[in-house]
Structures are given as C-alpha cells and as structure tokens.
Design a protein that fits this description.
The protein is of the alpha/beta class. The chain has helices spanning 30-38, 54-63, 77-87, 106-118, 183-189, 196-201, 206-210, 230-248; strands at 4-10, 24-25, 28-29, 46-51, 66-69, 93-96, 124-130, 144-147, 153-157, 173-182, 215-220. The strands form 3 sheets. Strands 5-4-1-6-10-7-11 form a 7-stranded mixed beta sheet, with helices on both faces. A two-stranded antiparallel sheet has the order 2-3. Strands 8-9 form a two-stranded antiparallel ribbon.
Length: 249
C-alpha cells in the first residue's frame, strides 16, 4: 500500500471570517482554488474535501470535488482529517492541506509525499520558508520554526525564534501549515491529549514533539499566503489582478 490522499478540512464558522471557504476571490470560491491547486499534484491518488457544513458540500459537488461529511464536534482541522483517514484504509500517506491557502504549490504536495515514501523513519513532514521581511517574525500570528542540521523541527513558536543578536543576521523560518502524515501516526496523534507546550503556544504540532515524534521540515524558497480575514482576501484578489494584468500586457 503506497497510495496518498490529500484531505482539505473546511468549516463554515470562523470568528474572524465566517463563511470563508465560499468567499469568492477573483470569481472563484476560496476553497475551490485550494482544491484546484491540490488536484494538480501528481503524487495524490485522491483529493477529498472534509466538512460538516452542507453549504460547502453542495458547492464542492458543483466543482466536481469528492467530499466527506464529517462530525461537527471536531476541535481542529487535524481531527476532521483523521476522521476521513480512519475510514480511508487504502491510503498509507495523508496530506493535510489547509483550506485557506489558495496558492498552495502542487509541487510542494508532491515533495511531502516523496519524502514520506523515501524515508520510513519520517512520521510527519511539513514545510517552512524564510521570511521575506524578517521584521514580520515578531508577529504572534506568524508561526516560526527552528530545525536541526538534519531538517528536523526542534520547536515551533509564535515568538521570534531564535532570539536575535541582530535582525540583520538572523534567519527566521515561517512555518507553512501543511502536513504529511503516515496514516497510523495521524490516527495516534489525534488520540493524544493536548500537551502543555501545545496549550501554551496554541500550536497543535507541538503535541507531536512533546510525544517524541520527529517532524521533518522541508525548507522551500517561498510559501503561500493564508487567508485569515476579509482584508487578506482582498489583498490576494488585488495580487491576482496585477498578475493577470502583467500576463495580458
């Protein structure tokens, strides 16, 4: 069994951005853009949208997406992904694709799957990239990661890590919230209770580190922006319009 599935968790209710998955960006719903990018990945045998909301289900069916209706009680997207993975026994690798990153790179998805297939010691793999503007590392909304010499995560934090002797000489890595799991590791992960560091930072991935699971980090040249607020959506729409203008000119 060597198959891989991409699962995109999506929920309607969001404190900062209700209805975000179906918010239209340059004529297309946000979630549809994520799905279209994901199905371009060559390594995935299937892409499934996981949601508890019938509005999202009906819209996704219209795009031709495969959809799994999940429980409304899940506390996180990872729990939602695990519910689908629990039933999808024919997949060895589970890629948790964030439903609010419409520019997710299909090549990154392929790299995550490739890493899991090529190294049996890797249980979880994610990605990170250097901040274009190091000053952004001070924002608690941007998650940072530090890695060892073999590319394994040492720690994730909302704080600016490592502590800088000077901003000009410190390389900050922004964590991009996409994860590749071995199926059995994912199912074990969601059984563990939230851990002390996880609760302190409000970062779910620390649960893996606190339970002794190594998380490999692929360092990429750049990442894709997440959409957290309507303002973020407007900024992306403007970016896409500029890019289209350059192509047509």
């Amino acid at each position: 069994m060597n198959k891989a599935v991409g699962i995109i968790p999506a929920r309607w209710h969001s404190t900062r951005f209700p209805g975000k998955p179906l918010h239209r960006i340059a004529g297309k719903p946000l979630l549809c853009r994520v799905w279209e990018q994901s199905i371009r990945a060559k390594s995935l045998d299937s892409v499934i949208i996981a949601t508890d909301d019938m509005r999202i289900v009906e819209a996704a069916f219209d795009w031709g997406a495969e959809v799994a209706l999940t429980s409304a009680r899940h506390r996180s997207g990872t729990d939602r992904v695990a519910e689908v993975a629990r039933k999808a026994k024919n997949f060895a690798y589970i890629i948790n694709i964030q439903g609010d990153e419409p520019l997710v790179d299909p090549r990154l998805i392929d790299k995550l799957v490739e890493k899991l297939r090529s190294d049996r010691k890797i249980a979880i793999v994610t990605s990170a990239h250097a901040f274009e503007n190091p000053a952004e590392a001070s924002s608690p909304h941007q998650v940072k990661v530090v890695v060892d010499r073999k590319g394994r995560a040492l720690y994730f934090s909302r704080a600016g890590i490592p502590f800088p002797p000077s901003f000009s000489r410190t390389r900050y890595l922004r964590h991009q919230g996409i994860y590749g799991f071995r199926r059995d590791v994912l199912l074990q992960f969601v059984k563990w209770k939230p851990t002390p560091l996880e609760r302190a930072e409000s970062l779910e991935q620390l649960r893996a580190l606190e339970n002794g699971v190594r998380v490999h980090v692929l360092i990429t040249a750049r990442g894709s922006p997440g959409i957290d607020t309507p303002k973020d959506a407007t900024a992306l729409e403007q970016k896409l319009a500029r890019a289209k203008g350059r192509i047509l000119s």
